[in-house]
Amino acid sequence: MEWVAPEQAEFFDSVLRFARGLPDDAGDLDRSGGFSRQNWDRCGAFGIHGLPAPEQYGGGGADVVTTMLALEALGYGCKDNGLVFSINAHMWTSVIPVWTFGTEEQRRRWLPGLCSGELIGCHTITEPEAGSDAFGMKASGRRSGEGYVLNGRKTFITNAPVADLLLVFARTEETGIGPFGLSVFLVEAGTKGCLVEAPADKMGLRTSPMSDVVLDDCFVPEAAMLGTPGKGGEIFQTSMRWERACIMASQVGVMRRTMEACVAYARHRRQFGKPIAKYESVADKIANMKIAVEASRGLVLRVGWLMDHGHETSMDAAVAKAFVSEANVRTHLDAVQVHGGYGYMTEFEIERALRDAVGGTIYSGTSEIQRRIIARGLGL
Fold it and tell me: Could you confirm whether 10 is annotated as catalytic?
């Protein structure tokens, strides 16, 4: 089956040209743990941040496959993997839920800024004692007058240090337990009682800011609730459905870029009188990268096609997420071997890309969680 129409292929090429034209300061930013607001804004002006949202709210009105292709091209052409990760987090945990579950007033207030990139969003799910068991969260939303008082601690929140809007998940008292006991609130940064702590120091994706968020008697009006009381589980699952499907598209692009770097290096690097590409042990590693890229791309685009045609994709997205994230780690471990000592040095991109790849087996549901989803889908 042909997943990509000619006009989508042209769009891919245009995004790739744009991404390759972005200033490459990823190495310096990785060392300092910085975030490129300039490149974020450039991506917003190009139209990346709001691609799947309706045009009436400033979005691009793109289907899922087109959005995936744009993110693949961005991952392929932009060397700042953390920036691309932050863009993904913004789209799937802020743009999508506000568009899907927001009131008309909420959409008009928030979506234009989120789609343009003028505003940065994040969602607060994970807690110190609730990681993979997201629905075991303890943060509370207690009714008080014409609103709610939020209390709790959230951890590992991507984009929190730079966010203008936080989607806060909390357990509300009038709803039940588990996923049915959660509600979501739109909390503007700077709201009294909402404290964003100092950025975390991470192994990889260091150019994507992350921190804890503390809610200490944070009052929000009733109009700040996204959806209805108890809708949090559905909102979370909707975000994850998009995120698990689309965030891997960026990794396909990263793997392709790394594979091509290995091909170029293996052709010109000579040892024992000939290019190292002529050694089977090296060539096989690069051949495996090609297999990983093509298989990953097929899995990802298949999920996009299924979503565009209204099919349920929980198991398919889990398959893609587990396979692509693990293939990305293997690709970059092999890339280090191909480059030898140079691959181990922090001044070169390969070492940084390996550190960035490791996070893919953890965020958006660990590989172990993906296998649980797959097993459940098989009736096990």
Answer: no
